[in-house]
UniProtKB/TrEMBL annotation:
Cofactor: Mg(2+); K(+)
GO BP term, pick one: nicotinamide nucleotide metabolic process
Designated name of the protein: ADP-dependent (S)-NAD(P)H-hydrate dehydratase
The keyword rRNA-binding is assigned to this record: no
Positions of AMP binding: K369, G370, P371, D372, T373, G397
Protein encoded by which gene: nnrD
Presence of the UniProt keyword Isomerase in the record: yes
Taxonomic lineage from the root: Bacteria, Pseudomonadati, Pseudomonadota, Alphaproteobacteria, Sphingomonadales
Signal sequence annotation: none
Species of origin: Stakelama pacifica
HAMAP family, per the entry: NADHX_dehydratase
Function: Bifunctional enzyme that catalyzes the epimerization of the S- and R-forms of NAD(P)HX and the dehydration of the S-form of NAD(P)HX at the expense of ADP, which is converted to AMP. This allows the repair of both epimers of NAD(P)HX, a damaged form of NAD(P)H that is a result of enzymatic or heat-dependent hydration. Catalyzes the dehydration of the S-form of NAD(P)HX at the expense of ADP, which is converted to AMP. Together with NAD(P)HX epimerase, which catalyzes the epimerization of the S- and R-forms, the enzyme allows the repair of both epimers of NAD(P)HX, a damaged form of NAD(P)H that is a result of enzymatic or heat-dependent hydration.
Amino acid sequence: MRDAEQVWFNGGGSQVEAMERAGAAVAREAARFAIGRGILMLAGPGNNGGDAYVAARLLSEAGHDVAVAALGGKTEGTAAEMRMRWHGETVSLEEAVPRPIVIDGLFGTGVARELTKDVKTYLHHIVNNAQFSLAIDLPSGLETDSGDDLGAATMDVTVAVGSLKPAHMLGAGLVRCGHVLLADIGIPVSGPIWSLGRPQLSAPAVDAHKYSRGMVLVVEGDMPGASRLCARAALHGGAGYVMLAGTGSAEAGPDALVHRRVEDAGALRNALEDERIGAVVIGPGLGRSDAAHAKLDAVLESPHRAVIDGDALTLLGFETADRLSRRDALSVLTPHAGEFGRMFEGGEGGKIARTRAAAARSGATIVHKGPDTVIADGDGAIVANSGSSWLSTAGTGDVLAGLVGARIAAGGSAGQAVWLHGRAAQLAGPAFAADDLIAHIAPAMKECL
Ligand SMILES: NC(=O)C1=CN([C@@H]2O[C@H](COP(=O)(O)OP(=O)(O)OC[C@H]3O[C@@H](n4cnc5c(N)ncnc54)[C@H](OP(=O)(O)O)[C@@H]3O)[C@@H](O)[C@H]2O)[C@@H](O)CC1
Ligand SMILES: Nc1ncnc2c1ncn2[C@@H]1O[C@H](COP(=O)(O)OP(=O)(O)O)[C@@H](O)[C@H]1O
Ligand SMILES: [K+]
């Protein structure tokens, strides 16, 4: 957004115009929710405060009862001009009395440090005593690029100005922003970060056969239940043929699953000679023994697309970037936060920046899981909110790994799998077990055809 604004200003766009549009968008949304109730506008010293003064003026002109609570501090440039154009009631933040509607324009993308104790106390008091709260661009005290909480209050609605910022989809932002509305202010925005939308999938071609649909080999581990969840998810994720390679019982269904007896890494290498394999999944329930490590080596040395999950990620540890950058075929890593930390220590910035850096170092696609899943590769990053915190139950990661295997075996993407996984969870409703999620993959897929 900062870059887009700069390009727009360089091309003759004016800051006054941008701020008028931002303030107008905020006023429009606030008016819809205010329905005649008194409004308290919190205005900070920067451009976020500038937007607030514009919105206050427009709402007041439209007949709303508006008071401004201003935070001290030096206001300069366009924001100072907007402050001067406001002629209504103004008090200091300390003097402000809560009103039914609060609009928070203290800080936006320019928040630079923790809110002071005083500012935080006033802000929370006013927001908590309002009937409805709306943040301009970001809840004040939410760090833009990471979603880290520097003292923000929890808002009902946030009006994102011009484009979503990472904090609208990451970390504490998931709770603090409330419902996020996007206001177009006529500044074209493009960049390497997107939010995940519903994918467009197609039914198999008329002349499809099981191998052309995508064949997935799942390496069975010490915990065969995890591997089976993964293999079943691959079957329902659209794969034409799913083989479970290990020593577990073939009696544990489903019958459509092909069991191949694979005792050790040598036998796995033989199985991997099959050129029809579209993707290999290793990691769910794998275990961390030497035998597991040898199987992982066999997969990494194979020419197949690979999904690397769970224990396999921990086995790779800090060697991940080195090992994977030597692979020619696509590798998709699916770590949760703990596994990510065991592979890529430290790193600068928020989750998006750290995941992109890891993808660049390893040459892999990285699905960095959590309520704010970040999918990064050399082209950029996609952020996905699954929309179901019920996913926080054992085994759902195994289901995701199988889905990723099915999608990439069919020439699709990890993003498709993440969307299907999240949507299946929404359709499954509350308190499901990972097994139950699988039955909801097909209905989720139906929405994409
Ligand atoms: N660019 C544009 O034209 C457009 C921008 N737009 C709007 O501008 C917003 C970005 O504005 P911005 O860059 O001025 O930053 P902003 O969020 O107002 O905060 C900076 C001010 O706060 C202060 N401050 C920071 N942290 C603090 C703390 N913890 N405690 C106390 N003070 C603190 C900081 O002071 P300093 O750090 O210098 O001491 C500075 O004075 C953006 O979110 C959108 O709403 C739209 O109008 C569209 C056009
Ligand atoms: N609070 C949450 N909200 C949304 N999705 C979540 C949440 N917690 C976990 N998930 C998702 O659930 C899955 C859990 O995977 P993982 O942690 O590997 O679990 P397991 O290893 O038990 O299968 C991931 O897809 C993750 O993104
Ligand atoms: K704000």
